[in-house]
Each structure stands twice: as structure tokens, then as C-alpha cells.
Amino acid sequence: MKIVILFIVILHSSYAVIYRLNVTEFNRMPSQFRLDDYDKCLNEPDGFYCAVEFSLVSDAPSDLLTMIQEYSENSDRHFNHTKPYYGICLTQSCREYIKDKALGTKDSLEGCLNESLWNEYKLKAKVFDNFQCTKSNEEMVIDGGDIAVVVLVLFIIMINIIASFYDILYVRRNVKNAHKYFINFSLSRNCSKLFNVRARSDPRQNRLRCLDALKTLTISLVIVGHSILPLVIFCQNVYFLELSHDNVVYQFIYNGTIIVQIFFVISGLLLSYNLQIASETKTLNWLEIPKRFGIRWLRLTPPYVVVLAFTSTWLRYAGSGPFWKRVVNDAVNDCRQSWWSHLIYVNNYYNNGQCMPHVWYLAADLQLHLVGLIVFVLCKGLIRRIALISLFVIGVIAPAFHTYFQDLNGTLVLTFEAVRTMFVTDPTFVNVYKPAHTNVPGFIVGLSLGFIIYYLQNSNFDIKKYKRYLLVYYATVPAALAVTLAGMAAYGDGPRLSIYIRVLFSVLLKPLFGICFAVLIFGCVFRFEDTIRGFLEARAWTVLCRISYCAYLCHEVFFRSIAGSSVMIRTNIIHLLDITLGNVFISFLTAIVLHLFVEAPFLGIIDTMRARETSHSKTSKSNLKNTNVIEANTLI
């Protein structure tokens, strides 16, 4: 036993890393976060408050600084304690020291910090250039962009109100003469559509009701995961948060980033399934590619533009707090520089800083949507199968190449320092997590599932013959959880995982997770059992699903605002539930407004366009349907 302990000590010292500290040793370090009273500071006429990140330094050898550096080396589990983050009221905490110095300069900030750090820890501070200061009675500077957004919002409200009165006072008496596009802005009609939970007219589409619950639950869990940002920004009990890696419950949050693969599976499934249904009534030629791509862009963009416009302008005036300029204003400034990359959906390949980094998925989804359209329309029979297999292999190999040659993590590791910057500088996030080409496997699994479901529905497939595999089917959920928790290996004490293990993780985790949920969806569609399916097909999920996209867009505004305006708190499981579930609730509540005023009208316009196209179609439905039944046998 002594030999083992000696080996561990030698191993740790060879890597100059301290993996654990007891409470006494941990409390020897300067606080990672410290805040002076923000409101009390700025209520004074000359109040001056600065949010400062600095590096701990020493003019002479320091055992304490060495310990801090070695403890911070375990960056997967620990904060970087060599770089604390303080909120300082210069006009209260340092009034005597700064009376002969200019406020808000590096010299005044370093002088103020050095006084307390030297007295308590015999250390000094080197302030970084990214400090942000706020003074009392700062004036709002309204520019042309702010005014344009106000005009846009007022126009949206006005057109919805006018269309609503138009619907109530005129259309209901003269239905035949209604303006088919303008009427889609009627709030009363859109409310009725939102809360309509009747079964879909097409029984085949009705069998996909489980997707409503999966989309809603996935977006809710994404919001829960993103809501830990405020805890990382202003956590008082840092030691507790660092030890949370030993708790399996918290590990589901830290490794839950893989859950986004459910989006890609569902997206691929709906694309291939709906295209096959559409091919029953018309021939899909290459012109369908730009047409359907444009419809997809129109479906995603209107509510996206509204949230992006607000984030780029008025969000900076929506509140205030110790870290407001660092957390919120920096995002506003980045959005003003990179808004164009969002509108053309290339932001997942363009490093756009803090501007809505969570919407990388929309860009990746639209890019993969285009790939799926090309494969479906231009590839037939055996060529289509070869294309799907080739894309899947490329999607599996690409993350492995990135991981190996760029020395990345096999899965996205939620280090505290990366969370504070929303991963925008994390190489694994930039090169593997958010590009479209590294998320191809889940999308191809979804595309293939859509082909399989459509074919089996047309061939009178009877799943009751396979009831003996029911336990295997139930095992898909635990299997998905096991794949999620596999990422725990990255947070263990000890050296970083071998590059070969990290490559193996990058190859296997996403496809396996996607396949688990593909099997779950398959069983729900064909009603393999009633327990999971009954829960996922509850009618309430239909309403929540309709507003889930808007909730996904909105939620970043709220957790950024909380992070920027809040004071330090003690983190525990109760507060974690409070802040995460609270963000889910307020995001979905706000999403109702955004859906009714923006998203629903444009969805109605898309439906109107499709209805007019259908009414002008002169293709024989019966002949095309017979043709497609024959083709379905060679789809995959």
C-alpha cells in the first residue's frame, strides 16, 4: 500500500499538478470571486465600479503561489485560481489610495488590489486589459440601430393588431375574399393553432407525435445546461462546485452536451420522411433543392432575426450589475460585428465571439438540411445508399482527425474557464462540436430512419412479431445515459486521457447516442410498447413543441442577464434547480409571445405558399404513388 501511495505522489509531482486540496489548504488561496456592493457603490454621486480579472504574481518565490499554480493545472475540474475575478468599488474600497491617481486605469486597479493581496497573502496582481468599469449616472447612448429595432418591433405589433381586427371584423363574414397572406398575422387564428391538439389529418404523420416530446425535452435540457453560466460567474462556494465532479447527478450536466444529437436525428428523420410523402404527389427534381432550402431558411429566420436584433441593441440597457458589461455588453458588441454570419447561417464556422454562441446548431442544421436535400433529390436507389454510407463514414472519421491532429478532447469538456466564455475559445468546441461536418452521423442516422419508417409503413410491417426484444428496447434509454456518462473519464484525477482513447470517444459517442434514440423513436412510431410511448405522445407536448424553437432562441438573453446582474451566492442543488427550472419557465413563457407575433405568421405564410403550389399541380397523384411504392423497396 505504501508503494502505491509513493507512486501516486511521484506521479503527481512529475506532472506538477495538485488534484485535491483539503478545505484548510484551499482556504489559504485568495477568493476566486469577490464583489463589493454594486448598488451601494453606484448610488453615490461619484461611484466608480470595475469588474477586474487579474493574474496573481510574486516578486519572490512563493510556496502559496506555487500551490495555486499546480492546483489550477487540473483545469478540467478546477477554476484557474491564478486568475481571480473581482468587482471593486474604487471610490469606497480604495479611496485613500487612489486620491492622487486617475480612476479606472490599470495602475489604480493594480495598486488597489496589491494593497489587500500583499497584506493577506504576500502576493501581487497584474491586471488584464479587459477590465470593465461603470460610473454613477452613465447616460444611455441611443444610435440608429436601436431606433431601427424599435421601429421593427412596433411594425410587427401593428401588423398583428391590424390583421387581428381584419380577421374579426371582415374575414369571418367574407371568408372567400380574405387576403391569404395577410390573414396569417391574426393573433386569434394563431392562438387557436397554437393550442389545437387534435390529431393530424395524415395518420402517418400522426404516428410521429413522439417527436414533439423529444424536441421539447431536449430543448428544456439544453436550457438547463446553459443555465449553469451564472453559477460559474459569481459562485461563492467555489470548493463545492469543484467537488461536484464527483457527483453523478452533476456529471449528467457536465456531459449532457451530447444531447444535441437528438436534434440532428429528428431533423434528418423529418426531412427524408416528408420528402417521400411529397414525392407521392409530384416529381422532385433539382429545382426542389433551392425551393425547399429557401423555405427552410424562411422557417428559421424571422424569430431568429428579432432575437438577434434585440441582442445587438437594447439588451445592453436591459439591466446592470457587477459583470454586466463583461457578460452582456461584450455579446452586444460581437453581434454588431458578426450579425451577417447569422443571417447566412455560417456562424458555426465563423468565430463570432460571444454573439449568441448557442445558435451554432441552427447553422449546422441548415447546412445538413441542404446536404440531405441533395442526397434525396439527386441520388436514387443504390447510389443513395452509397451516398448515405459514405457521408456517415466521413462524419465518423472527421472528428477523429480533428481530435488526433489538433490534440483535442474526445468530447466537449465543460471546464469552468470555458463555460465563462461560452466555449468560444475552446478548440474542441470550435473544431469538433459545432461544425456541420462533425455532426453528420446523427443526421444520417435520422435520414436513414426516415427511409426505413416510410418503407415499413408501406409494407404493412407488424412489430408485434418482435415483442420478445422488448427488454432490449427498454435498454436504449439506459444505454443512452451510459454513453452520456462515458465522458466522466475526462474529469478524473490524473493525467489527461490518452490521445487514442480521446479519438475513440470522438468516433463512437455521437453515433451511439444517435442510434439509441433512433431505436427509441422507431419503437414509438410502430407502437412497440405503451409506457414510454404513452408519455411521449401526451397531447400537451404538442403545444410546448410549437413554441420550443422560440424558447431555444430566447433563453440565452435570460441566463446572460442573470449572470451579468447577480450578486454572489452559495451554490447547492436546491439553487441549481431554482435557477435552471426558472430559466426554462421564463424562456417558454417569452416564447409564446415571440411565436404568436413572429414565428406563427411566417409558418402560416409557408403553408399558404404550399397550398397554392398544390392547387396548381397537374400531376397525376395515383400514377406517382404507384411509382414511389416500387421505388421504396430500393431506398435503403
For the biggest sheet, the summary is: 5 strands, mixed
Number of domains: 3
How helix-rich are the residues, as a percent range?
55-70%
Q: Determine Rg (CA atoms, Å).
A: 28 Å
**CA-based shape:** globular
Query: Distance between the terminal alpha carbons, to the nearest Å?
Result: 58 Å
Mean pLDDT: 87
Beta-strand percentage range = under 5%
Overall structural class, as computed from helix and strand content, comes to mainly alpha
Walk me through the structure.
α15 crosses α25 (499-525), α16 runs antiparallel to α17 and α27 packs across α28 (573-615). 39% of the residues are buried. The longest helix is centred in the last third of the chain and has 43 residues, at 573-615. By secondary structure, this protein is mainly alpha-helical. Mean pLDDT is 87; it is low at 1-15 and 618-636. It folds into three domains: 2-135, no CATH class; 141-194; 195-607, no CATH class. It has helices at 2-14, 23-26, 38-42, 63-72, 90-93, 95-98, 106-121, 144-171, 187-194, 203-206, 210-226, 229-234, 238-243, 248-254, 261-278, 288-312, 324-343, 360-378, 381-405, 416-420, 427-433, 440-458, 470-474, 476-485, 499-525, 531-536, 540-565, 573-615, 621-632; strands spanning 33-35, 48-57, 85-89, 124-127, 132-135. The chain contains 29 helices and five strands. The protein starts with a helix and ends with a helix. Strands 1, 2, 3, 4 and 5 form a five-stranded mixed beta sheet that branches.
